[in-house]
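To the wet lab folks,

You asked to see what we're planning to order before we commit. Fair enough. Below is the target structure as tokens, and below that is the sequence we designed to fit it. If anything looks off to you, flag it before the synthesis order goes out.
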């Protein structure tokens, strides 16, 4: 007499649930050691920027007239109160660098938010409606890209006047074409997909179709571009500050600190070296993290 050979429920090997998209992206991201290091550096910079009021040992614009151009504490003639020395008017360099991190991060985030939001709207309209709207928007972006970015930023600041706010606006305008072109290309590639056609048949309006259905599927390359855009914004703001068109003294912006220290390159190297290193490390960290995000969010890199 034959027995029933149906396997029991206990004998069935359980199948693990697939990881969530966020977990999968994180797993790929942390495999990139350069990106992981960049993320750690950015976390440190953000912590200093958010806690600058409490972490910085001194007021960044307070002057000590008895401590002009004091070297760092490991050099002869240093003042132990000032770890990284002082500048030409007796201000603590470490405090100015920490508050400069706050300014630089704020500049980068503000510029990216402004340029990304504007670029998404323009690129979405151009890619969705096509026709003369697309031609007009994209030709304007091509004209803007034909001009060197720093030259265009200088021209805008020259028209609006020097200052931190005008410099941020100029940098946001300079970065705008990158987001417009990227959004438009992503929208065009999504238009003929089944979920978009199904939404049209269901009666979805243009606004819902663009910003609810299509936009979420276009965000991956925009997030990568935004991360890289922060580093570009910090670098451009430092360049404008160095030329005297960005943040104005006594604001402790890194580019402005470089500009003020030009005449001391040979006699007080620390005054110009430390702000330059801060710009280098911050820009490099954001670039490394941006490259890691690009690899983690690109399906082709996961194969």
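Sequence we intend to order:
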């Amino acid at each position: 007499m034959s027995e029933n050979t149906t396997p029991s429920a206990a004998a069935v090997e359980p199948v693990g649930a697939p990881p969530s998209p966020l977990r999968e992206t994180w797993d790929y991201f942390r495999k990139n050691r350069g990106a992981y290091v960049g993320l750690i550096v950015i976390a440190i910079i953000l912590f200093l920027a958010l806690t600058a009021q409490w972490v910085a040992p001194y007021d960044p614009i307070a002057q000590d007239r008895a401590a002009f151009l004091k070297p760092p504490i490991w050099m002869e003639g240093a003042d132990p109160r000032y770890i990284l020395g002082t500048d030409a008017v007796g201000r603590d360099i470490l405090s100015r660098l920490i508050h400069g991190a706050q300014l630089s991060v704020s500049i980068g985030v503000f510029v990216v938010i402004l340029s990304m939001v504007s670029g998404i709207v323009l690129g979405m309209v151009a890619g969705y409606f096509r026709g003369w709207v697309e031609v007009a928007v994209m030709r304007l972006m091509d004209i803007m890209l034909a001009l060197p970015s720093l030259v265009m930023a200088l021209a805008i600041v020259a028209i609006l006047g020097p200052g931190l706010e005008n410099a941020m606006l100029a940098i946001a305008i300079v970065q705008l074409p990158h987001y417009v072109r990227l959004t438009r290309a992503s929208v065009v590639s999504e238009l003929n997909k089944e979920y978009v056609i199904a939404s049209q048949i269901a009666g979805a309006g243009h606004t819902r179709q663009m910003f609810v259905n299509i936009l979420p599927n276009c965000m991956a390359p925009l997030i990568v571009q935004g991360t890289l855009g922060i580093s570009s914004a910090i670098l451009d703001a430092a360049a404008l500050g160095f030329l005297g068109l960005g943040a104005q003294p006594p604001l402790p912006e890194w580019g402005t600190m470089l500009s003020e220290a030009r005449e001391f390159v040979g006699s007080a190297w620390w005054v110009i070296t430390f702000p330059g290193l801060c710009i280098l490390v911050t820009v490099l960290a954001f670039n490394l993290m941006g490259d890691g995000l690009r690899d983690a969010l690109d399906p082709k890199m996961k194969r």
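Structural context that might help your review: The radius of gyration is 26 Å. The longest helix spans residues 93-129.

Thanks,
Computational group
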